[in-house]
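[Automated response] Your request has been received and processed.

Submitted sequence:
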Amino acid sequence: MAGPRVERVRRVPYAKHAGRRAAIVEAAAEVFAARGYHAGSFQQVADRVGMSQSSLFHYFPTKRDLLLAVLERRDAVGAMRPDRVHASSFVDEVLAVARANTEIPGVIELYATLSGEAVTEGHPARDYFTRRFAGLRADFAADFRILRELGLLRDGVDPDRAATSLVGLWDGLQLQSLLDPRVDVVGCLRDYLDGILLPDPEPA
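Generated structure:
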């Protein structure tokens, strides 16, 4: 008596799977940047990568899963790893990240679009951006406190308010640059930081 028929399952090689997944996330980032999360559709993403919606669901079962992957990609692209011992290194790293954002297509558009949408109640990215802004404020405030201990923060500058102002200025400048490319995001950030930080002391 013949045993039960066992069907062979074709396994997609990991490298191919990872490459296709990365292509989907990149396509989704472009769609969400151009249309927003709600207006951007699975079909539009599928069309960009040349696959069917049903195939797309194998990689990302829900639109929320796809959004979270897009946000993780944005964080990886914009990761900031500064050496924050001196004022100059802190400023240089901030400006380097700001400059890199302007050179990577779609990053600023995606961030501005999704962060603006996320203020609405129930948006799937609302918690992400709430945590992100809180984390940025806390990290920059900690940096400014270190700089104050080193005597590199100007008198009267409050680290918490300076951190909040830096986050708000940075996002606002990036938004303005989308509407008017003449806006100098890096130059304006440099002016702000030069206004609240003292230059590193000259070596003896």
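Summary generated for your ticket: Residues 112 and 175 are 6 Å apart (CA to CA). The radius of gyration is 22 Å.
If you did not submit this request, please reply to this message.
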